[in-house]
Design a protein that fits this description.
The structure holds two protein chains of two kinds. Chain A has five helices and 25 strands. By secondary structure, chain A is mainly β. Chain A has a domain of about 160 residues. Chain A starts with a helix and ends in an 8-residue tail after the last strand. The chains are: A mainly beta, B mainly alpha. Chains A and B meet through helix 1, helix 2, strand 3, strand 6 and strand 7 of A and helix 1, helix 2, helix 3, helix 4 and helix 5 of B.
Amino acid sequence: MGAETDERWLTAALREIVPSFSEVPDLTPAVRRRAHRARTRKAALAGATSAIAVAAIALASSAWVGHGSHQTSVGGGSALPSSAIATTTPIASPAGPTPQPLSAGFYACPGDDGMAVCSNQPGQTPKQLNNGTGGIGDVSIDSAGRFIYYRQLVQTPSGMLNRIDRLPVDANTPQVLVSASSSSVSLGSPVVSPDGKFLAYGQMTLSAGAAGASPTRRVQVFLQRLDDLAAPPIPVPQPLLSGSLPAGPLLGFSANSRELYFTDTAGTVSALDVAASGIAQRASLALDATTVVPGCQLARTLLTRADDFIVVAACADKIEAVRAHDGHATPDGTLLNTAGWQVTDVELDTTGRMAVLWWSAAPQPPTCVGIDGSVHIVDGVPLDIQLHATPGCIQAG
Amino acid sequence: MGDDEGFAEFVHGRQSSLLRTAWLLTGSTAQAEDLVQHALMKTLPRWAQLSRDGFPEAYVRRVMMNAFLTWRRRLASHERPRSDVGEMATEERGYAHVDARLSLKSALSDLPRGQRAAVVLRYYEGLSEAETAEVLGCSVGTVKSQAWKGLLELRSKMTADGEERVNRHGC
């Protein structure tokens, strides 16, 4: 088949496979709601400016204030493998105490094509997790840094499968831990207990509602014995979850006890007490994150290996990380935020010392169509700021 | 017509087309809707200016493509996968036809994002190499290379899948 024939065939075939979307409800209300949420969030960011050109200046003068006596400017941004960085403003050099070197550890990160696992050591190539469908997500790594857990969508000859897999950090062949064939079931958020005996994961089941009604969603949490994968998963009794259904990812197990933490829509963290048998016995409130960062927009809550919680939130003029332990909250880093940056995600590495925070900002037409960045914070001290932007987003400062 | 009405009319008129492109990029209805909503949300505050300039759709598509290429983390980690085999065109033309459509969809999903974007813009949207380069923010040479590699890869995968089906069915 010649190239021209190929091209004609492809054009025709693509037009044939794509759904018409002619009966999709009008997206305008959803877009307006989403825009309203974004505006509300932005409104809280007093001093926010729409001039992205100012972002470079703001970043250059940003400062992370570490906990305790740490106080430092942002770290120098390393060169990005991208031609889209458009700033001539130098990022400030570190001025505060340099943290002790990190022992080797890993964290989930965006790769070139979907999710990847990054090393906290410089110069290491990310390990790409890619099954070709783009359906990999909810990546977690055990505290020993030996196994990567994630959910993925896999196409098989008999249909689509939702799976939770385990992949050794130094290998490329995953082991299937949980599999669901129904298209109405989604699996997610796999986390493993510190002793390696239990895998906890979430399951959402969609059921068709009455005619014209939206489908109903049922969220459950299961524990699967890892030493006996043939054993049926143990459901967490629904009454234990009824007051605070898991809305975000399961945060993980306590390093010191068999407690499983999860967040709900209101930002509270609950703890499930899991017996040695894998049966969850009681639930209790572990943290109300909204009280830790009052008046701020919660972005993410993380669980450290020391059983601390790190709460990251966007506040009026800063993005703030707060460490909470036994009811006491202490600042763990503050990024001055004068240009409307919004937190998109935060990950903690397996050493528990390094948090990686990604953010994005609204673009400006006609040339600026995307801008985002990241920062590494070790022991509350920023070591690296990176900016990605399409040309036209940031001008010389 | 006020800006609000203008925006609503634009969305009403163009959402199906935007969703089709987004579906080819993401391979899922849920992610396609999310991608289009994201692009429209970014466009809304600037609607007055964009509609005055006369080409709002070009901007929406650029935001969408940029989000697709750089928004990996959000798409990958927060969206729940769901089976969407049943989302394709509904005409029933026999299992072989369904197989071919599944193969193309699967092969398209297997392409790296850059190649997928170039293929969709060049061969589905029908943009020129220069227009594709402008939307993707790269050189014409890169577009040529990405689209060509994508085309070869799709042909190779489709041929392999077809042979496998023939062998499986013994015909």
